Amino acid sequence: MRRLLPAAAVVAALALAVSACGGGGGGGGGTAASEPPVSDPAKITGEVTWWDTTRPDSEGPTFQALIKQFETAYPGIKVKYVNVPSDQAQNQFQTAAQAGSGAPDVIRSEVAWTSQFASLGYLQPLDGTRAVDKQEDFLAGPLSSTKFGGKTYAVPQVTDTLALIYNKRLLKEAGHDQAPKTVEELKQTALDVKAKTGAAGLALNVDSYFLLPFMYGEGGDLLDVANKKIVVNSPANVKAIQTVADLIGSGAAPKPATTESYANAMTALKEGKAAMIYNGPWALSEIYQGKEFKDKTNLGIAPVPSGSVKAAAPTGGWNLAIYAGSKNIPAAYEFVRFMTTVEAQAKIAKEISLLPTRTSAYANPDVQGNADVAVFKPIMDTAVPRPWIPEGGQLFQPLLEGYQALVGGKSAPADMLAKVDEQYHGIMKDWS
């Protein structure tokens, strides 16, 4: 799941980047070659502290069950499970790693954080270690997010993207048997739902990650990485933001609050007060707890509607990374290896619909038996890779502030993007 950092966290991240050369994190830790061979992994001892970023109510039980399986298989290793909210984990890890104390042995790192942590010297290189098992089995997109400077610093745990998630009953009552395929159809469907059912058509989430499908749909992007060029303030993106503003202005989407809009949108969908939202597979376990979806067949999942150019959503997901200053490196290797096996990924897919990162996992009966995963997999195949650069985790806060200004009536689309462009140039000073 992608949640945004508060502004203070971004300031802290920038400050840490200035002092990047290792801090308390050991400057990158030992190399894989320095690790002695393990004759019997099951005899390894130690305590592994794991910072998990899943929701403790709907996702946490599955991961805690996997921990129990791991401790049975590795009786000499204890796992200390700590659930850290996803919107706080990045800043908390950086603060602890910089201080040289309090960082976990293993962190569940959002894909955009991994290269940043690695650039700061906070992650253990994993090439040639037991943490990485059959690297060729991982999907290319998630695997690419684990690399920095030619080395591997994490192992992909789950992958995701965004889709249009909708209430079939409300759409049918509004006269629509299928999900909208274009943004124009999205607007009309939402207006029909509002007119004929009284429910909101589309509940928007004021999170900049959720703007990306609209931008990609018009052929826009945030960066041109190959040419080191900032392209957020483009005509394509202006058109995309105008589309979002029109959805709100027309009444197709009620004006969202500038804070807590993710929770508000989820609640509206679950209670039948909104017919459609954009969200990812991580949200499904929570959505199914809503009264509208006790009958799971009432939930529809479709690709995000296309703009004038294409239909596309961002690549997301989570990696498992090991802190370079860990005192339990061998035990951490075994934990990461176990938690990214086909069997672990299949259990996660079966129980909470999170998408595997291993190609072979999609042949597992438990994965094939989950209809939600089957729907999301082809959507995932068309997802747009995000820039796996150290600054990647800092791109969303300026966009969030612009989105909030847009919704609050304080900024027009062109002015919003001009301000974001200015902030991006402050982050990436050597980019044009």
From TrEMBL:
Domain of life: Bacteria
InterPro entries cross-referenced by the UniProt entry: SBP
Stretch forming the signal peptide: 1-22
MF term (GO), any: maltose binding
Residue ranges the record marks as coiled coil: none
Gene3D superfamilies hit by this protein: Periplasmic binding protein-like II (3.40.190.10)
Pfam family, one: SBP_bac_1
SUPFAM superfamilies cross-referenced by the UniProt entry: Periplasmic binding protein-like II
Biological process annotations from GO: maltodextrin transmembrane transport; maltose transport
Alphabetical UniProt keywords: Signal, Transport
Family: Belongs to the bacterial solute-binding protein 1 family.
Name listed for the protein in its UniProt record: Extracellular solute-binding protein
Phylogenetic placement of the source organism: Bacteria, Bacillati, Actinomycetota, Actinomycetes, Streptosporangiales
